[in-house]
Design a protein that fits this description.
Pfam families: Amidohydro_1
Enzyme class: hydrolase
Helix content: 25-40%
Family: Belongs to the metallo-dependent hydrolases superfamily. Hydantoinase/dihydropyrimidinase family.
Protein name: Dihydropyrimidinase
Distance between the termini: 37 Å
Shape: globular
Radius of gyration: 21 Å
Bound molecules: N-(aminocarbonyl)-beta-alanine, zinc ion
Strand content: 15-25%
GO molecular function, one term: dihydropyrimidinase activity
Number of helices: 13
Length: about 475
C-alpha cells in the first residue's frame, strides 16, 4: 500500500534558503512543501521536527567500498559502508570503482561493482568509471557508459600503478567532454613522488611522517595546474579535482574559475580539520593516505576556499582499513601500509559542527557543499540534492543542540578506529530518511540491506550547474 509521512515544526533548509514549512512524503517522494499541509492520507505518520533542521540528505561522491588496493582489501563493503553513511546523515554515495584486471573494458568493472552493491547497499548509490588505460575500445565505450549505463563521471589517476600519462589524460578529457561526462582526477606528480620516496626509503626514513614528506603539496599543486591546462586544451573539457588538500592547488583552481574555466573541486573533512603533526604520533599510520595531511597553515586556506566557493563539494574519500590488522605496520614503514581512512559517517556532523555551528558557513552553504552541488555535478539533480516536490525523499534531520563526543564504538563502519576519536561536535544528524524510509534514528541503524537502488545518472551539462 501507500505510505506517507508528514514532517512538521522543522526548519527546512536547501541550498538557497531556510523556511518554516511542512514537508509531506508519499511513496518515497516529496509530495508537497508548504506552510501548512492539510491534504494528506489519513494513516500518515507525523514526525515532529521542533528545533531541528530538515535538509536534503548528504551525497558523498567519493567513497571506496570493498576496494582491493593490491596490498589489502578495504574493510567496508557496500553494506557496512552505506550503513555507516546512513547513520551519519548521508543518503547517497558515488563510489570510485577500483582498477580491474589489466586491459579490461569499461563495462567489466561496472558489472563487478553492481554485483558488490546489489543486496547490500542500504541507501542509493552510483559509481564513477575508472580510466586505467586508453585504447580505441575504451574511447568507443565511453559513450554507452554515459548514455546507456548512466555513468556520467570518470576518474583518472596521475599516480599509482594505472596512472595515465599526458597523452592518455588528454585523450580521456577530449572524449569524455564529447560524450557529456565529467572527468575527475587524482592529481599528484608521480615522478616527483617516486624520486623522493626512493631516496627516503634508501636512507631508512620510513616512519609514518615520511609518507607526507615523500609527497609534498607541490606534487599535488603541479598536477592540478597541469590538468587544468590539459582540460583547457581538450576544448574546455569539464574537470573535477578530487580530495584537494592544500592552498597552492586551490590558488590554481581559483585562477581557472576566474577565467571561467569549467573546473570544480572537492575537499574532505580530514584536510579541513587534521594536520600533518599527527604523523609524529605513535599511531601515525592511522592517518596514512594520499594526498597526506598537510601543515596546519593549509587548513585555514581550504576553509577560505569553501567559504568563497572555490571549493564546490566536501566528500570523504572513505577507504577504511583495520588499524590493528592492516595499517599498524605503517608506523615503521609507510611503504607497506594501505592508504586511506574511514570517514563516511562523520562527514556531515563534522562539517555541521566546524562549519555551521562555528559560524564559518551558513546552513544553506552546508547543504550546497554536502548535497546540492554534488547532485548538480554528478547528474542527480533534481532527483536529489533539494527538497522539491517530485524529488526523492532523501532527508536528514539535524539537532543543533546535541553535543556529541565522537567515539568509534558508536559508529557503524567495519573499521576499528576513527581519525576523530573524542572530537567534540556540536549538532548531530538525529534522523536519516532514504526514499521515505527512516534508515537511522538517534544513532540506531534501522535500514535494510538491499533497499538502496542503483541510480542512473544524467549526462553532464555545465549549463545546468
Ligand atoms: O589514500 C587514499 N586516498 N586512498 C584511496 C584512493 C585514492 O587515492 O583516492
Ligand atoms: Zn585519490
Ligand atoms: Zn579516493
Ligand atoms: Zn574508540
Amino acid at each position: 500500500g501507500s505510505k506517507s509521512t508528514l514532517i512538521i515544526n522543522g526548519t527546512l533548509v536547501d541550498a538557497q534558503k531556510q523556511s518554516q514549512q511542512q514537508l509531506l512524503i508519499i511513496d518515497g517522494k516529496i509530495a508537497a512543501v508548504d506552510k501548512v499541509i492539510t491534504d494528506y492520507p489519513v494513516d500518515t505518520e507525523v514526525i515532529d521536527a521542533s528545533g531541528l533542521y530538515v535538509m536534503p540528505g548528504g551525497i558523498d561522491v567519493h567513497t571506496h567500498f570493498n576496494i582491493d588496493v593490491g596490498i589489502a582489501r578495504s574493510v567496508d563493503d557496500f553494506y557496512t559502508g552505506t550503513r555507516s553513511a546512513a547513520c551519519g546523515g548521508t543518503t547517497m554515495i558515488i563510489d570510485h570503482m577500483g582498477f580491474g584486471p589489466k586491459g579490461c573494458d569499461l563495462f567489466h568493472q561496472l558489472k563487478v561493482y553492481k554485483g558488490f552493491a546489489k543486496d547490500k547497499a542500504v541507501i542509493d548509490y552510483s559509481f564513477h568509471g575508472v580510466i586505467q588505460h586508453i585504447n580505441d575500445e575504451v574511447i568507443e565505450d565511453m559513450h554507452a557508459m554515459v548514455h546507456r549505463e548512466g555513468i556520467s563521471s570518470f576518474k583518472l589517476y596521475l599516480t599509482y600503478n594505472y596512472k595515465l600519462d599526458d597523452t592518455g589524460a588528454l585523450q580521456a578529457l577530449n572524449r569524455l567532454n564529447q560524450v557529456q561526462a565529467l572527468t575527475a582526477v587524482h592529481p599528484e606528480n608521480d615522478a616527483a613522488i617516486a624520486l623522493k620516496r626512493s631516496q627516503l626509503i634508501k636512507a631508512g626514513k620510513t616512519s609514518a611522517k615520511y609518507h607526507a614528506i615523500s609527497r609534498p603539496l607541490e606534487c599535488e599543486a603541479e598536477a592540478i595546474a597541469r590538468m587544468i591546462n590539459l582540460a583547457k586544451l581538450a576544448d574546455d573539457a569539464p574537470l573535477y579535482i578530487v580530495h584537494l588538500s592544500n592552498g597552492l592547488g586551490l590558488d590554481y583552481i581559483r585562477l581557472a574559475k576566474q577565467n571561467q574555466q569549467a573546473v570544480w573541486s572537492e575537499t574532505c573533512p580530514q584536510y579541513l580539520l587534521l594536520d600533518d603533526k599527527l604523523y609524529e604520533n605513535e599511531d601515525g599510520a592511522k592517518y596514512l593516505m594520499s594526498p597526506p595531511l598537510r601543515p596546519k597553515a593549509e587548513l585555514e586556506k581550504l576553509w577560505q576556499g569553501v567559504e568563497d566557493g572555490s571549493i564546490d563539494t566536501v566528500a570523504t574519500d572513505h577507504c577504511a582499513f583495520s588499524y590493528k590488522e592492516q595499517k599498524v605496520s605503517g608506523n615503521d614503514d609507510f611503504s607497506v601500509c594501505p592508504n586511506g581512512m574511514p570517514g563516511v559517517e562523520t562527514r556531515m556532523p563534522l562539517l555541521f559542527s566546524e562549519g555551521v555551528m562555528s559560524g564559518r558557513i551558513t546552513p544553506e552553504k552546508f547543504v550546497e557543499i554536502t548535497s546540492f552541488k554534488p547532485a548538480k555535478l554528478f547528474g542527480l539533480y533534481p532527483q536529489k540534492g533539494c527538497l522539491l516536490p517530485g524529488s526523492d525523499a532523501d532527508i536528514v534531520l539535524f539537532n543543533p543542540e546535541l553535543k556529541v563526543h565522537i567515539s568509534h564504538e558508536n559508529l557503524h563502519d567495519n573499521s576499528d578506529y576513527t581519525p576523530y576519536e573524542s572530537h567534540q561536535v556540536n549538532g548531530w544528524p538525529v534522523m536519516t530518511i532514504s526514499r521515505g524510509e527512516v534508515v537511522a534514528c538517534n544513532g540506531e541503524f534501522l535500514g535494510k540491506a538491499g533497499a538502496g537502488q542503483f541510480v542512473h545518472r544524467l549526462p553532464f551539462d555545465k549549463n545546468k550547474i
